[in-house]
Amino acid sequence: MDAPLWERIPIMSNSMPILAGKPISFDAIYDRYKEATMRRALRLLNGNYHDAEDAMQDAWGYIAAHADRLQFENEAMLSSYVMLTVEGRARALLDKKRRRGTVPLPEDEEETDGTDIHDPVLYQLCAEETVETIRRAIEGMKPIYREVLILALLYDMPTLEVAKTLDIRQSTANMRLKRGKQALANALRKENSHE
């Protein structure tokens, strides 16, 4: 039997991720999320097991290489980070395969209204809403925008790190962040108009 994935990934640092102020081993994180992340990768990659394995190896390699910089306040933040990293790598693999063919990329299907939303406007809208309303608005977004928003706004990652995490170009991360902010602002405005 092959060695577990975590044994085959070269770890760049002896530092461990931090969860709720306490170190947590990479092994523990991998054991906790390996099945859920594989299911998610399989679903995103249309059941192709080999592609899902490739996406998983890439994602877990990234997580292991950056383990010394990971700090999470709670289990939900850790779970989000792990799942978003796997989703990003799976989507990147799917996009690469699509580019070889003639299938249009999903992000070309729908555009936001193109209005320029600056951070102060978005933050003002968020300040006027409950956490539940904001969470619902973000959950209702397309995954490509939701992922970037969560990493950039919740985890306070610069777009270069977001791009590396999701295995996309920085310009793509910037555009998705801009469109995601626009979509979030529009959703919050729509919520305000219904009240």
CATH fold assignment of the largest domain? Rna Polymerase Sigma Factor, Chain: A
CATH class group of the largest domain:
Mainly Alpha
Low-confidence stretches: 9-13, 102-118
Q: How many domain regions?
A: 2
Report on the structure:
There is one protein chain. With 195 residues, this protein is mainly α. It folds into 2 domains: 1-103, Orthogonal Bundle (Rna Polymerase Sigma Factor, Chain: A); 110-195, Orthogonal Bundle (Arc Repressor Mutant, subunit A), CATH 1.10.10.10. The chain has 9 helices and 3 strands. A 3-stranded mixed beta sheet has the order 2-1-3. The N and C termini lie far apart (59 Å). Residues 9-13 and 102-118 have low confidence and may be disordered.
Task: Give a short summary of the structure.
This protein has helices at residues 5-8, 26-44, 49-65, 75-100, 119-127, 131-139, 143-154, 159-166, 170-194, and strands at residues 18-19, 22-23, 71-72. With 195 residues, the chain is mainly alpha-helical. It has 2 domains: 1-103, Rna Polymerase Sigma Factor, Chain: A; 110-195, Winged helix-like DNA-binding domain superfamily/Winged helix DNA-binding domain (Arc Repressor Mutant, subunit A, Orthogonal Bundle), CATH 1.10.10.
Task: Describe this protein with a few key phrases.
mainly alpha; Rna Polymerase Sigma Factor, Chain: A; Arc Repressor Mutant, subunit A
Layout of strands and helices, then pairs:
Elements: H1 5-8, E1 18-19, E2 22-23, H2 26-44, H3 49-65, E3 71-72, H4 75-100, H5 119-127, H6 131-139, H7 143-154, H8 159-166, H9 170-194
Parallel strand pairs: 1-3
Antiparallel strand pairs: 1-2
Helix pairs in contact: 2-3, 2-4, 3-4, 5-9, 6-9, 7-8, 7-9, 8-9
